[in-house]
């Protein structure tokens, strides 16, 4: 009995350990950014995203979800995916734009925190298959993959302006209402078809062979999936809209 009780306690603390690891990598990324080592700071954010995906899934698989864990996860996300990527974007490119640069970085942080607050309030009242607005880890991953892909800080002003536009766009997508797949319905305990397993293996192979390109493409496709899905939905509803029936009666002519 005592061993079973200790085992349950150990399992219960496991998701919080992953959340703490997420917070640690976010803080480490901030340290690297302050040292100007942007190529090392970006992958740390990617690791934080992986740990953030694992802590919630492990909590659901082990039945150890709690309000404490949810609050701890939100606070860790505010640092790892709010403060850390905002500083990374500012130190990497936005610092060359005196006022608009830090304003855009702060806007990213504010919108990310608002996104977390909205998620906490609506998590029991919305469809769990979708997120409302771009999730803050995805927004942070988008910035991190761009820095990871380019590595060297841009020297031209136009590159900084493009980064400014991207940061502001990501901020608006986080507080927007576009729907994004959450993939929470994926059951890891279900048996998978061989083609599915082969596809997953192919994805890992692409990441191993071309990590910069494959990660940038993956994050970009997910970022665009929200607006893209909205546009496709509009087109589909317009095609399915019933057309008014044509009348065959001839108009009556009054004398």
Second CATH tier, the architecture: Up-down Bundle
* Sheet of most strands: 2 strands, antiparallel
Q: Rg, please?
A: 23 Å
Provide the helix percentage: over 70%
N-to-C span: 100 Å
- Beta-strand percentage? under 5%
Q: What's the number of helices?
A: 8
**Quick one: CATH superfamily?**
CDP-alcohol phosphotransferase transmembrane (TM) domain
Query: Would you give the CATH topology?
Result: Four Helix Bundle (Hemerythrin (Met), subunit A)
Kindly state the number of beta strands.
Answer: 2
The overall pLDDT average reads: 85
Low-confidence stretches: none
Tell me the series of helices and strands, N- to C-terminal: HHHHEHHEHH
How many individual domains? 1
Shape label: globular
Spatial order of strands in the largest sheet = 1-2
Reading off the top of the CATH hierarchy, the class is best stated as Mainly Alpha
Please describe the topology of this protein.
Blueprint: H1 2-34, H2 38-62, H3 67-92, H4 98-122, E1 130-132, H5 136-150, H6 157-175, E2 179-181, H7 194-209, H8 211-240
Antiparallel strand pairs: 1-2
Provide tags for this entry.
mainly alpha, two-stranded antiparallel sheet
What does this entry show, briefly?
This protein has 255 residues and is mostly helical. Helix content is 74%, strand content 2%.
């Amino acid at each position: 009995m005592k061993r079973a009780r200790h085992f349950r306690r150990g399992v219960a603390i496991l998701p919080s350990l992953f959340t703490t690891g997420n917070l640690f990598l976010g803080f480490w990324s901030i340290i690297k950014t302050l040292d100007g080592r942007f190529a090392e700071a970006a992958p740390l954010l990617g690791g934080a995203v992986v740990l953030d995906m694992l802590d919630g899934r492990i909590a659901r698989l082990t039945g150890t979800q709690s309000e404490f864990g949810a609050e701890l996860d939100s606070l860790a996300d505010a640092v790892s995916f709010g403060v850390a990527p905002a500083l990374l974007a500012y130190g990497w490119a936005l610092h060359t734009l005196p006022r608009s640069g830090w304003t855009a970085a702060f806007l990213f942080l504010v919108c990310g925190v608002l996104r977390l607050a909205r998620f906490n309030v609506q998590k029991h009242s919305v469809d769990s298959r979708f997120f409302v607005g771009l999730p803050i880890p995805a927004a942070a991953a988008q910035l991190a993959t761009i820095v990871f892909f380019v590595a060297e800080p841009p020297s031209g002003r136009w590159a900084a302006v493009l980064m400014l536009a991207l940061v502001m766009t990501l901020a608006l997508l986080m507080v927007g209402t576009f729907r994004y797949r959450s993939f929470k319905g994926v059951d890891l305990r279900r048996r998978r078809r061989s083609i599915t397993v082969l596809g997953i293996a192919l994805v890992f192979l692409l990441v191993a062979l071309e990590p910069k390109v494959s990660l940038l493409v993956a994050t970009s496709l997910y970022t665009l999936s929200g607006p893209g899905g909205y546009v496709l939905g509009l087109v589909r509803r317009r095609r399915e809209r019933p057309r008014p029936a044509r009348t065959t009666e001839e108009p009556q002519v009054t004398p």
